[in-house]
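Lab meeting, item 3. Inverse folding demo.
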């Protein structure tokens, strides 16, 4: 169990073998700086797919030695995404990273029926959140991929996050199915589905985790708030995974945490044949490095 993203990076540096990273549209300064650190620190080896004429000067700018990072030339970002994903599908790489290509474009490459990384499961996004003043690292899902998941999809979103945390060393992660309230209000579909998820976990339909809901954000992360509200639950005040009801709630929560609380974050898509390192094009080099480290640990832990 990790208490910070710093610990995640430290653990990734001790992996017995480097994970092989394929970068899609690698012509981006922060991506290349993150790859440089991840390669130097023994976390990954990297293949850079993208616009070679742009990659060469950018790599020089961040002192990334291309001697050890082969470049596969592809100027079109969508085709570069397809090529990077294909490297994983063909067994040449263990994980793929989004570079200077749109989120939907790399996700479509991953979802491609013939050349993608489908497993038959739902793919979903997991964010790791490292907030100063909050004890421990916690995770939020899904604020970036699935737009309005139904109950069946929420089960898979929870399972993907639980599997990822198992790969990271959690034995029985605590999952809070978030809503606006902690009592089941029949007029609030998110609260009703959160209660159903908790019941499904009670009945063994979701395994390997403690799931409770509905919980409002305050009772999920604050033991004091849970106590004041009289909520008795092993998850209340101790959640490892916050499952949000839809992309709007998740995206707003994620960005509030990043912009108001200045948290450190990392992001990965789970549920595919291999982890997909997914950060925003505007994210810093640090976010990209932390995301590579998190994804490399998940990739190694799944084997
Ligand atoms: N998991 C597995 N299969 C999926 C998933 C998923 N999460 N989503 C779609 N599929 C499959 C479908 O079953 C279908 O077979 C095929 O993929 C195409 O599905 P569509 O028609 O829904 O695909 P798209 O291309 O219209 O949309 C897929 C996206 C992932 C691009 C879409 O869900 C999306 O735009 N999500 C939001 C991404 C985003 O903008 N995030 C912003 C915050 S960073």
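The presenter then showed the designed sequence:
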């Amino acid at each position: 169990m990790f208490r910070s993203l710093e610990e995640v990076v430290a653990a990734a540096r001790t992996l017995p073998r480097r994970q092989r990273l394929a970068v899609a549209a690698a012509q981006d300064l922060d991506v290349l700086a993150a790859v440089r650190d991840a390669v130097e620190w023994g976390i990954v080896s990297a293949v850079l797919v993208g616009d070679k004429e742009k990659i060469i000067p950018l790599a020089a700018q961040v002192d990334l030695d291309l001697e050890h990072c082969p470049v596969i030339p592809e100027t079109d970002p969508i085709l570069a995404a397809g090529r990077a994903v294909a490297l994983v599908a063909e067994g040449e790489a263990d994980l793929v990273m989004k570079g200077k290509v749109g989120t939907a474009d790399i996700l479509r490459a991953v979802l491609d029926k013939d050349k993608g990384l489908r497993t038959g499961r739902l793919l979903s996004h997991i964010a790791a959140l490292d907030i100063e003043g909050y004890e421990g690292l916690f995770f939020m899902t899904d604020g970036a991929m699935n737009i309005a998941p139904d109950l069946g999809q929420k089960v898979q979103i929870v399972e993907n996050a639980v599997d990822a945390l198992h790969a990271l060393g959690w034995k029985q992660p605590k999952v809070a199915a978030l809503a606006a309230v902690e009592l089941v209000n029949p007029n609030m579909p998110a609260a009703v589905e959160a209660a159903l998820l908790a019941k499904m976990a009670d009945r063994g339909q979701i395994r390997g985790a403690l799931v409770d809901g509905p919980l409002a954000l305050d009772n999920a992360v604050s033991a004091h708030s849970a106590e004041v509200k009289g909520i008795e639950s092993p998850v209340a005040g101790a959640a490892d995974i916050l499952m949000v009801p839809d992309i709007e709630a998740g995206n707003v929560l994620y960005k509030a945490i990043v912009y108001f609380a200045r948290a450190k974050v990392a992001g990965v898509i789970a549920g595919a044949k291999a982890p997909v390192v997914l950060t925003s094009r505007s994210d810093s080099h640090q976010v990209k490095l932390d995301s590579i480290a998190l994804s490399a640990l998940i990739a190694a832990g799944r084997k």
